[in-house]
Amino acid sequence: MITVDEIASPVGPLTIAERSGRVCLLHFGTDGADVDACLERWYRGDTRVRAPIDSIRLVLQKYFAGDCRALADVAVELNGTPFQRRVWEALRDIPAGSTLSYADLACRIGEPRAVRAVGAANGANPVAVIVPCHRVIGSDGTLTGYGGGLERKQWLLAHEGVLPRLPL
């Protein structure tokens, strides 16, 4: 069974989904067809219920209240290719208040020539914020693409005490 919940946040509504005690989706936006399509792709036919997920609500409230390390211990279930999962697991090693370039992330996973593939995997992250893809920036220190929008990425990084440059 998958529990789906929608919460308000300083960066807009977030939809979260949990399966077997692990977050399997954090989507920027309201609950709806996009969320159902993602979940159906990964969990075809699994029962879904709409109900509060109090434990994740509490952790996200702590994060948005300023405890930027609150997300570090949230259990996640990552659905993707083995390469994508390696990238997403490496994202969890970037501490709050820090950033890493796509090139550095590619090196960290032992694939220094796979910068574009790392960027694509970063963009396909199903558990935004908790798996902190917003902490990956361009090699020149500027913000680059973000599925949630550059304004949201900038807000999250500023919230964590990082002030990267916007692209020219």
What does this 3D model show about the protein?
The chain is an alpha/beta fold and 168 residues long. It contains six helices and six strands, in the order βββαβααβααβα. Helix 4 (102-108) crosses helix 5 (115-123). The longest helix has 11 residues, at 54-64. The radius of gyration is 15 Å and the shape is globular. The N and C termini lie far apart (46 Å). The mean pLDDT is 94.
Number of strands: 6
Helix content: 25-40%
Shape: globular
Calculate the mean pLDDT score and round it: 94
Query: Which series of helices and strands comes N to C?
Result: EEEHEHHEHHEH
Low-confidence stretches: none
Percent strand: 15-25%
Largest sheet: 4 strands, mixed
Radius of gyration: 15 Å
Q: Find the structural class using helix and strand composition.
A: alpha/beta
Count every helix, treating DSSP H or I runs of 4 or more residues as helices: 6
The termini sit apart by 46 Å
Strand order of the largest sheet: 3-2-1-4
Task: Pick out its properties.
two-stranded parallel sheet; 168 residues; 6 helices
What's the SSE blueprint?
Elements: E1 2-7, E2 14-19, E3 22-28, H1 33-42, E4 48-50, H2 54-64, H3 82-91, E5 100-101, H4 102-108, H5 115-123, E6 136-137, H6 150-159
Parallel strand pairs: 1-4, 5-6
Antiparallel strand pairs: 1-2, 2-3
In a few lines, what is going on in this structure?
With 168 residues, the chain is an alpha/beta fold.
